[in-house]
Structures are given as structure tokens and as C-alpha cells.
Request: fold
Amino acid sequence: MPNAPVIGTTRPAEVVARENGLTIGNARKLFATPEGGVVKALDGVSLQIRDGEFFVMLGPSGCGKTTLLRAIAGLEVLDSGEIYLGRDRIDSLPAYARPVNTVFQSYALFPHLTVAQNIAFGLQMERLPKPEIAARVEEMMALVRLDGLGGRLPSQLSGGQQQRVALARALAKRPRVLLLDEPLAALDLKLRRGMQDELRRLQRTTGVTFVFVTHDQEEALSLGDRIAVFSNGVPVQVGTAEEIYEQPVNRFVADFIGESNFLAAEINDDGDFRVADGPWRELSEPVLPAMDGTVTLAVRPERLVVDGTAPELVRGALAEVVYMGTDLRIRVSLADGTSLAIRVSPPFEQLHLTPGAEVVVGAEPSHLHPLAGER
Amino acid sequence: MSELIVDGRKRVPRILDIRSFPGVGPVAVAALVFLYLPMLVTTVYAFNAGDQALVWEGFSTQWFGYVLTNHTIIDTAITSVQLAVAATVAAVVMALAFALSVDGLRRRGSALANALMAAPLIIPEVVLAVATLAFIRMIGLQPGFLSLFLAHTTFCIPFALMPIRSRLDAIGREVFEAGADLGATAAPMLWRITLPLLVPGLVSGALLSFVISMDDFIISSFLSSAGSTTLPVYLYGLIRRGPSPAINVVALLLLTLAVVVTSFTYLAPKKKRSES
Amino acid sequence: MSEPNRGRTPGRLPWFASLPALVIGALFTIGPLAVIVAFSFMTRPAQGGGVVYQFTTDAYRTSLFTKSFNGDLVFNSAYLEVFWRSVVQATISTAICFVLAFPLALWIATRTPRVQNLLVLAVTIPFWTNLLVRTYAWMLVLAKDGVINQASRALGLGEHELLYTDLASQLGLIYTFLPFMVLPLYSSLSGFDFRLAEAGYDLGAHKFTVLRRIILPMARPGIISGSLLVFMPALGSYVQPVLLGGGKVLLIGNLIASQFGDSRNWPFGAALSVIILALLGLCLLGVGLWARRTGTKVSLSL
Reply:
């Protein structure tokens, strides 16, 4: 990587991000629990969020993602660490002075103000001239498709409409970054799908950087340009949906995103491996086994086959077959007592699956992911 | 199961109704009658035409005329209203400031502060009254309007605080965070968000303070001076001489104040909530 | 390390905004209490009210002993009897209030939500009505020409001496403090899930058993709060014994008040105040310890 970028060449993405995007450096935050304990909400988080991307922070509750979002907004003070927006350090600014805006989980609309007054509020705080505020409010209501509802009070709107007002109110300020704290959690499934499309559209049309917090992995995969998976106050993996799904870095990610089988494999001196009493096979990438000479392999259920189209991995007894319409879910018991979940896509008419029969489970080498450092 | 149809409505026999317990209804009704019978008697006799409080001589509103033109009653009532308004304004402002800032104190400090605010509710009124009298003498004040104002403000604060607090809790934190997020600094936040949202709590707090101050007798009786006699203090003197038609009327007027204020504070926030 | 959001909630005022309320609270709550404790250890002036700044425990001794003609201390139970009478009246008030309030609260809690609101309002109105008005209303009922005697005469049962008796004073206390018992009881019963009672019946319990074993334990926090809210002010009551009891039977509240007139014994009044505060303090401490041990949540506000 060149130290001084030559004019005319593409500069490294990290440098561009540092100059234009949102950079979080070694952010730490401890909370005291009422019982007198301590929770590490943020345990040294460093992230670079690029300008104009849809960035999703995903993790179970209590993993630190919301704390980080609130720290970016200025609603939480970091114990240590830095937050930069482009070249400007913003973590010492109060919330009202930061060029970022938030869509709250509960929407937090002002109940005593109408829709239009809610959207205008932030602009009035900037002391913009009245005609400009009026124009911007109109523009925002059109953007989120709320035309004609400007005179209503939030209590007179449906949940989905309130959600749109919250979006319009935050976007009206033309923030550099829009922070969204589980904004779809309160909506029912159908409405949520619709709002996901809406959010993607809004992000593309406005070009604003979206930082979206969720605990719903499907939502994360479908929305995010890039996703950070959080666990215990740190992002354990950052990448595109495909990277995270196909190449999980550890058991937590593999387990949290989608479904995974975890196989204990034995490694011999030649670097070959085998699962249970299966055949010895070559690994697709070199791996450092644990002290006892084993390694854990993660493999998705849909990457395992029972029709012999991939090299044999292990044999087992067919324990259960469940017809799900779009696919078949199969459970295979291995000699060592573990069981494998396998998903078979159509056509499966040719397969003759009798419970109790022996099946040969196969997998392509590239679909077996050795997992690093088990915790 | 046998079901009775009464007035077209299905009625479950009482023994099968899980919410009914034998004897509870009659005692409850008796307790309500016990609460309201004396007030009803007062109301009726306030419209007595006779000179005797309890000898009914026909319907008349003449005693209202008497009371409303009686200089002592009017003067003491004015003193009471002035005192109640002053104490209410002071108590509501201080309670508001307290409610908005007490969480900023350290945990132990805020627990202590809350206990201090609740203290006047727990100390027996007589004790607080004589102690306050001793205290104001000690710091060089005399019984009079200023002493009354300070004492009334003190015991009004907890009553003003209760509804303001519960309203603040009901609003939650996120609305204020949204305000800050949208760029509101301290002053616009207070004027455009905090105060408008707290209005129901402030109104309830003010009404409760006003009634508590208007009603106070024991503390006021120790702190009143010749020029600052409140209505309850004067009323007590009248009552000690036995029932009279004029007292009936004053009692009815004070009762009406309680009914109006209680109904208002009680029903107004309920209505607000059901709208949203 | 920081506590969650401490001092950071936007829209809140800086901590010193609570100072005015705290200062006036400290001045006119703690101040008077401190003065009353101090006064109780001071000497009574030769004549007139007030105190002389000279340490003595005479005031406390006065509550149990009198000086005889030759200067010896002789045990005197007069003031002890006043204390005892006050405790008895307060206890009776608490007990009868509970007997009336529990069915009322339970009855209210089993109505429809709309009716519940109205009934709670009906109980709240007397609570906010002027104490003198409420007491005076009973004078109209109990007086020589009052409602009861009118009815009694009409029925040929003759006339009864009702006003200015012990009984009238007791009745006044019960009447005054009944809402203080109903409201906390109601608030602990209103959240009661009557499906639990249903489960009780399903398991074979009778109505009375359900009441005793399921509903009464649920109402325990309300019973404790209500009892404290009745007992504590009833112990220090002042108006009812004078207006309804005719001032013949003094309670501790009247005794204290009468010591603070001109040319009365201020240190003695202060000592009595300290004693009653100590009694109530012990009472609260006991309840507090019990609440902590049993995990019951007791609140002293309505």
C-alpha cells in the first residue's frame, strides 16, 4: 500500500473512508448494573463506515450495537475512543451539534406537534428562513409518501405512517449520517417487508449514509451493503451479506446468521482431515488444528448433499425427513451421536429416502469452513 | 347451567360469578353512604331559610347572600386565595425544577432529596405546625403572611411534584433525545418540548397545591397573625361556637371547590390518554 | 465507568435547579424538626412562652413525673394516659377503616373500568375536601337537633347525647381517614388478575378461602400502606377531638398544640413532639424492615 497516493490512481478504500466516512476508533463503554456488576457494552470497537453506504450493525440484544449507535448520535458518552466524521472529530460535540440524525425505535415523535411541525422542528432549530422550511417539509412528505397528512397529530397515524414521519423528520435535516435504531421492530411482518424496500429506496435516492441497527439477521442480509456482526461489545466480522454468510469467521457468526452444522474434524500429519469415520480428504485451505489435533468445520445445510453429486464426507443413518414445500429438511445421525441438518432443493422425486437407511453425505471442499479460535 | 335473562341481558347467577363475594357489595355501598351522607346533609341545610342551622324552615338562598357580603368571611377568603396562589406558583416552579434536575444528582443524593420532599407528608401536622412556629421565631420571623407563604410552599411542593413526576415518567426519555438529536439546545427544548408536554402534570400539580393550601387549617392557625387570618382559621373559630346557617354555606362552597378540582384533575388526564 | 445515562438525558436541567426546592424543604422541614428537638432540652422561662437556652431534661421528666410540694418527683400517669388514649383511638380508627375499606376497594376493583374510574373519583373527593368541612358535616348529623336526633325523635326513640362525646371524636377520625385506606387498597387490588381466583375455584376452594388465601395476600402492600396512612395522622389528630369530642377528651395532638400558646410550657410541648416522632419513626422502621424481609413493596403516597 503506497504511503502517498499518486494522483490519478485509485486510492485505498480505507483512506477514502477515513477522509469522508464515519470512523470509530477503539470505542469503549462500561455500564454499572443495578446489582453492582459491570457490563462491557463497547469493548474497543473500531469501524470504518463508508460515505453513502447502507451499513447494518447486527447482533443479539446487549451486544453493544445500540450503545454504539447512541454514542454516534451523542446520546451516550464514550469512556474512551474517538468518533470521526470525515476529518472532524465529533465525539466531544453535544448531540444537538452533530451533523447526524436518528430514527428512534419508538419513533419518539413529538405528540403535541403535527406531522408537518414535527418535520419542521429540526429545521427551525437551524433557524432556516420560513419559506425554505415549508418547501423542505413538502419535499420530505412527498419523499416518504405522506402528502396531505401534514395537519395530523402523530396519535392519528398508523404505526407505518408514524415510522415515515420519523424518517422524514430526520432526513429533513439533510444529515451526513442517518442512524436507525431497530426502526422496524414494532411493525408487523408484512409492513416490515414493505418498509425495508422503502428504506433501500430512500437510501439510494438521498445518498445519505445509513447506519442501521437490528437483531434480525434476515433484515440485515437483505438491507446492508455491509454488515457488522456484534458480539459481547465488539464487531466480530464486517463484510458484505455474502461474505458473512459464506465465510463466517467463527462459530458465533456461523450460528447467528442462518443455520449451520458444526463438525469436529480430525487432522493428520499430512494436513488431511476426516469427520467421524468418513474418508480422509484434503483441505481447501491450510488450517492450524487445536491442541488435540482437531478443527471445527462449519457447513450450511443446503451445501450438504445426499445424492452423490459431491465427494463423500461421512456416512450416517437417515433419522428424519420433513417436507417443507420448497425443500426437504433431512436429519442424519452419525456414528458418534451427532446429527447433521441437510436441506435438499427440488427436484427430489428421484431420491428414495427411507428413515433408518444409510446415506452418504457429501460436500464440496470450498463449502467447508474451518473456524478460527473457538471461544 | 341455568342462566337468567334480565332486561335482555344474560345474567350469571351470583354464586357462579367469580368476581362477586358475599357481603362485599352491601358493605361497600354502606361505606359510600357513610362517606357522602354528611356532605349531603351539609348541602341540604345550606339552602335552609331559617336562622337556626338545623331547623328546616323552607328553601332559600338567603344565607349565600349573607356569606358573600360578610366582610370578615370575604377578607379571610381573599387572604386564603392570595396565599394559595402565591404558594402554588412557588411550589409548582420549584417542583418543576426539582423534577427536571433531581436525576442529575448522584444516586444517593437523589434518594435523600426525594425523601426530603416527601417528609411533610409523613410528619404529623400538629408537630410540623408547632415546630415551624418555633423555627420561625428562632430565625427572627413573626407569624404573618410571609411565614404562612413559606410554610405553605413547603407542604405544597410534594403535592405539586407527584403529578409532574408521573407525567415526566409517562413521556419517557426518547422524545427529549429526539429533540436534542434534531438540534434543540436547552432553551428551545424547555419551551417547545418539555413545557408543552408537561402541561397536564403542571395543571394537576397547581390545582392540588391550590386546594391543599386553601384547606390547611392546623399549620395556618399557628402562623396566622391578626392581619393574615385565613378562611379555615376563621371558620374554625365559627365552628367552635356550634353549627350555624352561615357555616353551612361556607362549607358547601369549600365542598364545591373540592368536587370541581378533583373531578378536573382526575378526569382531564384520563381523557387525554384515551385519545392517543 | 458510568451509570446508564446519568446526567445525560437531554432536556433535563443541571443538578443545581433542584436547589430551591431542596433549600426550602431543608429549611422548613429539617429546620423546624431540629429546633423542636433542641427546644425539648431547654428550660422553660419563669413566665411567658418560649424557652431559655439552658440545657435540662425537665421537659421529658414532666411527661412522667410531677413535682410534689416538697420538691420530690412523684409518678404521674396523666400524660401517659393521653398517649395511651391516642394510640387506642388511632388503632381503632385503623381497624374500622380497614373493615369498611377492604370490601369497598374489592367491590370497586370488580366493576367495569368506567365504573371503577367514577368510584375512585367518588372516594377521592372527600380526600380533597376541607378537613373542617368534613368534620363540621358530622356536627350537623350528630348535634342535639341534628339529623340522627330528628329521626330518633320522629320514631319516638327520644333524644341522645351524640355530639361532644368520645364516640363522636372516634367517628370523625374514621370518617376523615377512610379514603386513605381505600385508595392504596384499591391500587393493590385493581391490578389483580381474577383468573387467579378462577384457578382457586377450579382447584376446589370456596369463596371465603379464595378471599383469605389468594386475594388478601395480594392486597398486603395496600393494607400496610393504608394502615400507615391512617394510623400516623390519626395519632397526631387535633381537629376532631376538639370539634366533635368537645375538647373534653384530649389526645396527644391537642396536648402538644396547647403547650405552644402564650405562657405555656414550650419545652414540654417540644418533648411531646419528639416522643411522638420517635414513636412514628419506630413504627416506620419496623414496617420498613418487615417489608425488606418479606420483599413487600410499601409506598406512602397515594
